[in-house]
Amino acid sequence: MHGITRCDMCQVRREGICAALDDDARAQLLQISRRRVLAAHNVIFRDGDEADHYFSITSGIVKLVKTLADGHQHIIGLVHQPGFMGQTLNRRHTYAAESATGVELCSYPRAPFDAFLKTHPELERQIFEMTVRELDVCRDWTLLLGRKCSYERVAGFLLMMARRMPKAEGQVSNTVHFELPFTRAEMADYLGLTLETVSRQFSRLKKKRIIALPSSRDIIIPDIELLSAVAQIESCSSAFDEGQSRAIA
Amino acid sequence: MHGITRCDMCQVRREGICAALDDDARAQLLQISRRRVLAAHNVIFRDGDEADHYFSITSGIVKLVKTLADGHQHIIGLVHQPGFMGQTLNRRHTYAAESATGVELCSYPRAPFDAFLKTHPELERQIFEMTVRELDVCRDWTLLLGRKCSYERVAGFLLMMARRMPKAEGQVSNTVHFELPFTRAEMADYLGLTLETVSRQFSRLKKKRIIALPSSRDIIIPDIELLSAVAQIESCSSAFDEGQSRAIA
DNA sequence: CGGCCAGTTGACGGACCTCAACTGTAGTGG
DNA sequence: CCACTACAGTTGAGGTCCGTCAACTGGCCG
After folding, report:
1. What are the start-end ranges of the H helices in A78-194?
2. Are the beta carbons of B132 and A134 separated by less than 8 Å?
3. Closest Cα in chain A, distance from residue B143 (Å)
4. Which residues lie below 8 Å from residue B143, measured CB to CB, with a gap of 6+?
5. What are the helix (H) ranges across chain B?
6. Is the minimum distance from the CB of B65 to strand D below 7 Å?
7. What is d(CA A47, CA A96) in angstroms, rounded to the nearest whole number?
8. What pLDDT, on a 0 to 100 scale, did the predictor assign at position B234?
């Protein structure tokens, strides 16, 4: 009836918000959507902008950023594909969003999307569930920021990235290999550290052979279980024992 | 038809989840709800428990707590009245909930509540909005934990508490007076600090006359704007200049 | 009174920040 | 081809904020 739409090519049409919709509803939503393809480091919206659009991330990673008065940035969240942004009760955004990698997204003007939501409770349900998941992730992050030392934070970050990497077919090995789409400074802004500290912890992880770094963005994790153990250490000093881990007092 | 129900006495029936419901629907929901009244420091659910109930907090404050392997606790969130808990996609809770103050709540078994939700999208919408708000709060908290020094964190915490205090009738002054329902250790667990550091920052705030402490739990904030300024400082060292604040380089 | 707990304060050390120098890589243009 | 620049990243030296350990105070209750 509609012929081929861009939805048919979409990587995430069986995930994300569209997973909740049947073909008809998706075609209807398509009417009010606008496709955007962004290179890395482009602004999607700014802190203080009118929150007049919703966004469905179909490819890539988006940074949610607060800029402090002294110019420092803090990344309060990452939205990976398939993701959704724009749920807020405020009239204006309280943080900025920019593409961390190349990003593809569908944007929806607020008013017609809200109207569509009213007639499609299954979509609202889906967005609700995605929001609940984000809240869980955010709460876990407060634990990392509040209670972990720099070594554990960096390990935790790499672990999160590794777990989000699509597994190769029939992948069973513990080895993960991926390219980091972030600078040391960006990771620092996310981890509540400085870029120097992040770099030092990379060096430490490398020295202990928990990761290998063919180049600075090229991460090989020989054994993800090992990395996971490092990320969960709860006594900071034990991270500094070479080899044996000390019992916790 | 039903005569007087306990909902008629409820402080928050015009807020929280019940605000979304008309009298009939509320009466219906009442059928599956169970009222619980808890003193401070009682467990509502434990980390790892089956997530088989939802909870609507009608009075008091609930702590969401993760216990680490070394016995330390971290408070990942507070739920104030009117609040809602239990939205999770996991079969089991990933943190514990316990009353921080005296708490009154309505609990709803998961299955019938979910069924009720299906027929009352306005309630789902309400819970969704409350979840979005919590996500916003949680993201702001990551900024505090990731980028603020102990002085700012304690100020930020007091500011949050002060803002949640119900204003007296026609209150226009900048003065706020309330009783803290937390020990220094609990605040430390929330702020990612130690109880000693929290205590030191209380002393500092007191010495600078930003707060007054008739007793250790009795907080008087003479000028909330002043406290707000302290909480938003973005250069840590400037917090230590007595009197003048240094320009940020 | 004595025990217990919350809270305060001090001394000290360590993890992380700041400042700085240096390396490596990529892009530009003579 | 080789400066020259620009930027990401690494590494070191030194200072400081905060955690650890400890002693002390004050209130409460049996």
Report:
1. 110-119, 121-147, 150-164, 184-191
2. no
3. 7
4. A66, A74, A76
5. 23-32, 110-119, 121-147, 150-164, 184-191, 195-207, 224-232
6. no
7. 4
8. 67
A39 and chain B: CB distance < 8 Å anywhere?
no
- pLDDT for B134-143, tens place per residue? 999 999 999 9
Question: What is the tens place of the pLDDT at every residue in B145-160?
Answer: 999 999 999 999 999 9
Q: What is the pLDDT of residues B98-135, one digit of tens each?
A: 999 999 999 999 999 999 999 999 999 999 999 999 99
Average pLDDT, rounded, for chain A:
90
Scan for tokens 């428990």, then name that residue: B49
Nearest CA in chain B to A85: B132
> For residue B7, what are the contacts with CB-CB under 8 A and spacing of at least 6?
B13, B18, B26, B27, B30
Contacts of B145 in chain A (CB under 8 A): 142, 145-146, 192
Q: Do A131 and B135 touch (CB under 8 A)?
A: yes
Give chain A positions within 8 Å (CB) of B125: 124
A1-9 contacts, C-beta under 8 A, 24 or more apart: A2/A27, A5/A30, A6/A30, A6/A35
Q: Is B236 on the interface with A (CB under 8 A)?
A: no
Cβ contact B81:B12 at 8 Å:
yes
> In this structure, what token pair is assigned to residue A143?
């634990």
pLDDT band at B173 (very low <50, low <70, confident <90, very high): confident
Question: Exposure of A42 by Cβ count < 10 A (0-12 exposed, 13-18 middle, 19+ buried)?
Answer: middle
Eight-state DSSP code of residue B20: G
Structure tokens given for B1: 């038809």
Give chain A's radius of gyration (CA, Å): 20
Residue A90 backbone dihedrals phi, psi, to 5 degrees: -85, 155
Residue A204: pLDDT over 50: yes
DSSP string, B152-169: HHHHHHHHHHHHHSPPPT
